[in-house]
Amino acid sequence: MQLLLILLVVCGGMGLSVEAGLLGPLGSQVGDLWATLSIFGVGAALTFLLMLFFSPRNSPSFFAQPGWQLLGGVLGPIYVVILTIATPAIGIAMTMIGILAGQVFKSLVIDHYGLFGTPHRKIDSKRIIALIFIIAALILVARGNA
After folding, report:
1. Which of 83, 73, 69 is nearest to 32 (CA)?
2. What does the alpha-carbon distance between residue 121 and residue 46 come to, in Å, rounded to a whole number?
């Protein structure tokens, strides 16, 4: 099951690269914020349809959840605007590796302290080495763009 989930998240990462590739040209044609709105508008419509057919009917109310859990709704558009602006300027590979470096760094901190109710997972040498490799990849790709 874990291997299947790993493959699923790798495919999700591939989708983010495609999304970045689509957002750059769209943002240059209609504007960065309009491109961001289009991504979220289409995504919201698709999610609504999926909810109609697949969401459990007796789930707890969305509005009964703590407000801090809704921060993802604020962070999502910021992320997409960054993709829209950065991708045409530095390329998809550089954008994605930079995003990955930030994600892994912050994920290590969140795991280490068990923030947001996540399970506590200590930062160990293997995780630090993985982060160093990602930073090395960022540096190598940046030098290749120069």
Report:
1. 83
2. 34
Distance of CA 141 to the CA centre of its chain: 20
* Structure tokens, 131: 């982060």
* Tally: H helices and E strands in the chain: 5, 0
- For 23-123, list the strands marked E by DSSP: none
Task: Give residues with Cβ within 8 angstroms of 85, minimum separation 6.
Answer: 27, 32
| Cβ neighbours of residue 79 closer than 8 Å, sequence gap 6 or more | 99
- What's the CA angle centered on 13, arms 65 and 38, to 5 degrees? 65
The yes-or-no verdict on residue 61 having pLDDT over 70 is: yes
pTM over 0.90: no
Model confidence pLDDT, tens digit, residues 27-47: 999 999 999 999 999 999 999
